[in-house]
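Exercise: predict the structure of this protein bound to nickel (II) ion.
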Amino acid sequence: MMLHIPQLLSPEALAQARALLSEAAWVDGGVSAGSQAGQAKRNEQLPLDSPALAQIQTLVLSAAERHALLFSAALPKRIFPPMVNRYSGALNSYGDHVDAAIRHVRDAQGQAQRLRTDLSATVFLAEPSEYDGGELVIDSPLGPQRVKLAAGDMVLYPGSTVHRVEPVTRGARLAAFLWIESMVRQDAQRQLLFDLDMSLMALREHHGDSPETVRLAGVYHNLLRQWADT
Ligand code: NI
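Solution:
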């Protein structure tokens, strides 16, 4: 599933993130890529010990955790702490790659945990008018999908896809990106649940509740009960 989530960040949260970024120090992003991805990765990122990164992680995670559309589409079990990158100048692109299936993350107690990257997400932090190029290009059965969204918007896409970031030829592309381990591992099952949930919400909105919508809600929850791993 590929999904555009408008205004994941409120205008206030976006303004805070951008103010933090205007004063942040960047490092070469190649250091965090695996051997396959490192070849193609030419960008900068906020270092893991950056105070600005910690604050932006809080802003993005708190928005992600209470966003109903993102919840319905991703059914998150765990969300990887977002990272922030910049594409500009000579470090301006990231060639075709697939994200690693497993990422390591530390929990609140400092214990190492493994997280499966079922879904990838990018939150755009610069407006499209601020830079040329920089499209996120995601391979799909319908051909390459070119994504360049308003600041504050998110694109959600399967972690299994080949994707790249096109060279930025003017300005700077700023973005946060993160991975989600879903309670429902299979993309096709997640898509069915999302379609059912969206249709049920629309039915209720247009026609109110009825015995049929109650039964359909039961179907949704009983499918989720079968497929979810909490
Ligand atoms: Ni990637």
